[in-house]
Design goal:
nuclease, Ribosomal Protein S5, domain 2, RNase_P, globular, about 110 residues, alpha+beta, Ribsml_uS5_D2-typ_fold_subgr, single chain
């Protein structure tokens, strides 16, 4: 299930603002950029380039896994920040449990 429209960063200028004014945390599979703001609910963009996989079906599968994990863990409902999550090519070959563990550890990163 995709993220609701109200929880997505959809405009290019919104995503660029996160890139310019963000804190950054990364692990072997993901790069998370966070832009703290006041009041408004959290929003997110997921960036998966063709360098991760040439097949659109693989990129969509990764995007759906991430969206579902974010939805189940209620990340955006408890935070008032904008997020951009970039996926690294190494994320393609890992197991689903390792994938979710990496996402969880990224959100608990001490730099955020």
């Amino acid at each position: 299930m995709p993220l609701p429209k109200s929880a997505r960063l959809s405009k290019d200028r919104e995503i660029q603002a996160v890139f310019k004014k963000s804190k950054r945390a990364e692990n072997d599979f993901f790069i998370l950029r966070v832009h703290y703001k006041q009041g408004a609910p959290g929003r997110m963009a997921i960036v998966i380039s063709k360098g991760v996989s040439k097949k659109a079906t693989d990129r969509v599968r990764l995007r759906r896994r991430i969206s579902e994990w974010v939805r189940q863990n209620k990340i955006l409902k408890t935070k008032t920040s904008d997020y951009v999550l970039s996926v690294k090519p190494s994320a393609m070959g890992i197991s689903r449990t390792h994938f979710y563990q990496s996402l969880g550890s990224l959100w608990k990163h001490p730099q955020l």
